Amino acid sequence: MPLSTLEPSALGAIVEQIPEENPKFGLCINDSCVLRRDLTFPFTAEKHLSDVISHRIDRITPYSEKQVAFAYSVTNRTAADRSIDVTLSIVPIENFQPLLKKANDWGFPISFLLTSGRGKDEDTIINLAQDSRPAGNRSIASSMTAALLAINVLLAGLILGLKYKAGNDHIEELNAQLNSAQQMAAITTKTRQKIAQVVKEKSFLAVTRRDTPFAVDVVNEITRIVPDGVWLEKLSIKKGQVQLHGQAPAAAKLIAIIEASEKFSGAQFRAPVTQGSEGDLERFVISAALTGAQR
Fold first, then answer.
1. Domain total for the chain?
2. CA-closest candidate to residue 215, choices 242, 245, 254, 255
3. Which range among 21-30, 47-56, 90-99 shows the weakest confidence by mean pLDDT?
4. Residues 187 and 234 in one domain
5. Which of 20, 40, 42, 54 is deepest in the core (most CB within 10 A)?
6. Measuring CA to CA, how many Å separate 22 from each of 16, 25, 150, 192, 205?
7. What single-letter DSSP state applies at residue 45?
8. How much is the pLDDT for 146?
9. Do 218 and 225 meet the contact criterion of CB atoms below 8 Å apart?
10. Within this chain, do residues 150 and 186 fall inside the same structural domain, yes or no?
């Protein structure tokens, strides 16, 4: 029945039929609105388990202590390691504040929430009081059937609207986290690719520098090994080769001299030897491979 069509007087007539003098009113909620977690605590924590859980709510859920109502039940005790297993049921209160306020304004304050438990014959009672909130069972809920019936008639229309809220909110949160992770992964991949490219270029330059002598090394070596009386007109270095153009008294002797150097190999004439500008000189073009020795 929609809330807008229900009168407080009609609900009051139902409540008057309850035999108990001070009935407690509860709100039956869908199980999809409840967050459950299985936790383990030491034996020593059992006496003050409610306080222990309260102080840890913000670490085991996305909420603070004031934002939730919770209940717990001890499901197992292990003597070997002196521990207890606990099932924790948590409900974000803000999802139900409009309903709780409406019921309170009408004179039927909600003191607990009732939701289906994990077992077929077990319900979970989540007490809205702040002092102690252990989980109840069906036997406790039985004495409050009439009050629950009245409140459920009052809030049936709005509860249907909340049925999928918790699940949808969680899905949206996971999608946002997934999108953020994908963006970070894309940035990381691009950064790694840039780093790999820089390392590759740096390695290429290092290898090129190692395998290619400096021009000044080549000039120094040529100046050192070429005998007096030889005139160099042109020296070029290209693609690991050095080429010499000039005139010498005996051009053929230059081949052996260049070949004897540690910086050159494969010395040879690139063109026939011809008569130079002076009668006693020969014009030559000699090439040799650079061996990669550096200064």
1. 3
2. 242
3. 21-30
4. no
5. 54
6. 11, 10, 15, 69, 89
7. G
8. 47
9. no
10. no
